Amino acid sequence: MHTEPLDQQVIGSLSAELGDPATFARLVRLYLDRLSDRLENVVNAEDAAAMAAAAHSLKSASGTFGAAIVADIAGQLEAIGERGEEAPAPLIDGMLDAAEDARRALTQLVADAEAEADVEADNAPDDAG
What we know:
5 helices; single chain; about 130 residues; Four Helix Bundle (Hemerythrin (Met), subunit A)
């Protein structure tokens, strides 16, 4: 199990694959914009099957963006929901805490990527030349 809010290997791979800090920042922002809704869908699911589906969505998105602890807990909640069981409150609380830690870390990464994109734009050759 992960102990850091973000899996730096996943973040590095995603950043390298995208190749552009501005694109990386934009996609991470999209994840962050939708994170609250995904969390609410898990917490407020009407039944175990709905919780499993919402947790699966959260797990997939969080794993893609390196929020490993969130993805791990969402995976546990997905399995619990698939068994038709109710989520234990401490697990839900852990998911929400991990999501807040991931949100802070990803927000900092977005700021860093946007600053890098601005520097690259400032250093780009002027085509008007």
